[in-house]
User: What shape does this take?
Amino acid sequence: MESTHSYPGSEELYPSKRKMIPILLGSALFVAAGIFLMNAEEGFAVAVGAICVCFFAVTLAYSLWRILAPRPSLILHEQGFVDNASLSSAGEVRWEEVTDIIVYPFMSQRFIGIKVEKPERVLAHLPSWKRALLRANRGMVESTVNLPVAAFSDPLDDVARKLLERWEQYKRAQGRA
Assistant: This one.
């Protein structure tokens, strides 16, 4: 695809529509289930239904948007990367901030986790709602930046390898390898 950014020597990795469709369908199913529960007479069921509708309507809209208007999930460049992989994406992260890149399982799904030296500095440029999402994620996993398998058309191990290669290139250029 044609470049949509201004990073010389960069590489763009796009989401997989095939992987986004089950997320879209699952979200639609949970929105429908939430609406069904909201029609119940029991207060607890109505509350659960409302929560389902609110949460899964957001994931439904986001997955539909990712399918219809694809943009890169990840942009790798000489000075760092731009994370657009999920609703809780971290945006631009510079290689100098990165301390580790790992692949890990979480709730039956694989992720690339990127640990940074000062998480609050990475989060500072994000809107408050996104900072809250990323802080909540950090309560469950060690990494500040977490890239889900569904965000890429390439195999996750290949994406991790590309990240590691770019990070190593940066460290060598800085004399830190």
